[in-house]
Amino acid sequence: MNWQHLRYFEVVAKEEHITKAAEQLHITQSALSKSIDGLEKELGIPLFDRSGRNIRLNKYGRVFRNHVIFATNEIEKGIETIHGMAKTDSGVVSFASIFTMGANFVPDLIKSFQAQYPNIRLAYYQKSTKNILNDILDGDIEFGFCGEFPRDGEYASIDTEMVMVEDLVLAVPPSHRLVGRHSVRFEELKEESFIGYTDNTGIIHSLEEALTKAGYDPKMKQTYQAAEDNTVVAMVRAGLGIAFVANNPTIYTEGVVLIPVTDPFLTRKLYMAWNRNGYMSPSAKAFKYHVLSTINRVR
Length: 299
Known about the structure:
Helix 1 (about 5-15) crosses helix 2, helix 1 (about 5-15) packs across helix 3 (about 30-45) and helix 1 (about 5-15) crosses helix 4. The chain is built from ten helices and eleven strands. The protein is elongated. It has helices at about 5-15, 20-25, 30-45, 60-85, 100-105, 105-115, 130-140, 205-215, 230-235, 280-299; strands spanning about 50, 55, 90-95, 120-125, 145, 160-170, 195, 220-225, 245, 255-260, 265-275. By secondary structure, it is α/β, with parallel strands linked by helices. Strands 3, 4, 5, 6, 9, 10 and 11 form a seven-stranded mixed β-sheet that branches. Strands 1-2 form a two-stranded antiparallel ribbon. Strand 7, helix 8 (about 205-215) and strand 8 (about 220-225) form a beta-alpha-beta unit.
């Protein structure tokens, strides 16, 4: 159904006069009459009673008019809203991050961005890497700050820029046989039971990539899996296994011992991600370039 034809109907319904309505709409009477006739044919119901040159809303037209007024008002509000969102000096930018980045990266980013763009509102969420990527593809958010992920298949359209690299270390309970060591080799850990990470996370991909490159089997023996760093550490603290965790000050590691692993060199790369095929509003572009300029200054 043509939205313009609904607007024509709304004016004709108000005036109940084709000539006056056509003058208001700056179109010919014949074009307006043809539009109204087409709308009635599409609905399969007459909206006006006609008598010569006179035209009056009938009972169907009166009911339909109420709904058309509501619908066109909502559409106009929507147009106004998205135009406001698209302005560089205003609007909304939506983004999400994994949980640890929400503690040690996002607050400073929000502060610095809003100091430069005080009229752009930021909508922020915390999720796992996989959920962030899916939300980007679905258009629910414009940017994500996440871990590693496969670059082909369903995520082939997602572009990234690396924002930081974190070392991964081994976390063990205080009673573990390796406590007191300054470092360990992965060869010494092959028979250990690990607390692993779910497929929703990015760190699992970082671990598997590093182990594969070093010639090890990336599938470690696991007792439990978790989707968030602090839960993994809590399970280590409870003696349920050992784990690789990010050497990140925001992760609560009291009650466990952290030991560097010398081979392979384990890291977790963290990225800003966006859909290269998606529309990027001026306010979203401002956010993107602010992040890129910030991380380039740090480097």
